[in-house]
Design brief:
This protein is α+β, with helices and mostly antiparallel strands and about 300 residues long. Helices cover about 40% and strands about 15% of the residues. A hairpin with a 7-residue loop joins β1 and β2. The longest helix has 22 residues.
Length: about 300
């Protein structure tokens, strides 16, 4: 996708990014935050795609964008996390320092306070229904937070929070290319239903990437939500994707009930997951492909149950 600040037909010059490893982090910390230079550095157990994250001692983390497109997330999170944190019922990252380009690394980066917890895989969740309702409570508080001129959905949020139609062309091409690997007519119908629904309210805060890797649990309970790099203001339906990627059955129903969303918003949330499933179903990585198949099956099951409801 072409960046908004690039003229069509140009070939942008991208900064070279050195290996983002422990040695680089140590050099950056020593040069820019000497008070933490003696703390050990080690990679986190589960890393993300947009950023590379490292432990800095026992109480801090260092977070570095992996490519130029993710750079706007640094300033955005530093600006808005302190504003949102007091309004939210769970822990969120606390920015402690902003690093500058250096040691061959071309982007700004950040130091955060470490939040203790494990990523929310199914086997780590003690009570799925309690987990679902706790998450719904967090999202309700986020979506109702005062706007305070937050950033509107756009390229910085990977267009999360923007109209679902942003990805219409990509989705239709995926449906056509997948052919008989998917129930084409049903999938096209689900997508069309999602597109017919639009957000008519004022822009509200959304997280933009509510995924199991960004949800932390301790002793089986949800305690924190991390990685607000895709956050912004717009349509909150994108935050419902977790209903089909991690939740199922009773926990999905509890999540929806606790959120109190209408059919239209639920349909757009289902559309976000359908888009993601379709564009990753052909991924050569068998793990990613299996995740996509799981998402697609969850969407198909949910839509069938919704369609079978009495009028």
């Amino acid at each position: 996708m072409t960046r908004q600040d690039e003229a069509p037909g140009t070939v942008p010059v991208r900064p070279a990014v050195p290996p983002i490893d422990v040695a680089l982090v140590r050099r950056l910390i020593a040069a820019q935050f000497p008070r933490w230079a003696d703390l050990p550095v080690r990679p986190v157990a589960v890393d993300g795609w947009d950023n590379r994250t490292f432990h800095l001692g026992d109480e801090l983390t260092v977070r570095l964008p992996s490519a130029e497109g993710y750079v706007p997330q640094v300033a955005k999170e530093d600006r808005w996390l302190p504003v949102l944190a007091p309004r939210l019922p769970l822990a969120v990252p606390s920015p402690l320092g902003r690093g500058e380009p250096g040691e061959g690394y071309p982007f700004p980066w950040s130091v955060r306070r470490w939040i203790e917890g494990e990523t929310a895989t199914p086997e780590r969740i003690g009570d799925p229904i309690r987990f679902a309702t706790t998450l719904a409570g967090f999202l309700t508080a986020l979506h109702r937070s005062e706007p305070v001129n937050g950033p509107l959905a756009g390229a910085h949020s990977a267009f999360r929070g923007a109209p679902l139609a942003t990805y219409d062309g990509e989705t239709r091409r995926a449906i056509e290319s997948l052919g008989d690997r998917i129930p084409t007519d049903t999938v096209a119908e689900i997508w069309a239903v999602a597109l017919r629904s639009t957000w008519t309210g004022p822009p509200v805060w959304f997280h933009g990437d509510v995924a199991w890797g960004n949800l932390l649990v301790r002793d089986g309970r949800l305690v924190a939500v991390i990685d607000f790099g895709c956050c912004g203001m717009g349509d909150p339906a994108c935050d419902l994707a977790i209903a089909w990627t991690l939740l199922s059955g009773p926990s999905r129903a509890a999540f929806r009930a606790a959120l109190g969303v209408d059919d239209a918003t639920w349909s757009r949330g289902r559309g976000w997951v359908l888009w993601k499933a379709l564009i990753t179903l052909g991924n050569p990585d068998p793990v990613r492909a299996a995740e996509a198949r799981h998402m697609l099956d969850a969407v198909l099951t949910d839509y069938a149950e919704w369609s079978a409801r009495p009028e």
